């Protein structure tokens, strides 16, 4: 079995056990496989601020690792929630970077997980005149500070 087959089966097993009606489309972008769920019950699958979607993604990836130990992580999204959320996050980050360039005062992002921090760092390295720094520590959620160079 390949990664996509295992991923779809794993997600299907979970959603079927929970009694959801759904369709799943698989996309691959920049080497990342994304399982995109379409369901009339999307709000229940997404949860508050995507917390249930995070849980689903975690479970699917654990199930994949049991079958394919060296498999890369798979992204699970529902009704393009993550896609829209990431666009909003990067829009906010760019807006804060512009504010830093105008005012010279550093700005802080809200606490973010490692994946979202990576997105912000990569997006803002394209903007000349600003630099991003993550705070030190072992916390799962950390703030990014945006400064003028």
UniProtKB/TrEMBL annotation:
It comes from the Bacteria. This is R3h domain. Residues 83-149 form the R3H domain. GO terms for molecular function: RNA binding. SMART domains: R3H. CDD domains: KH-II_Jag, R3H_jag. It holds the Pfam family R3H.
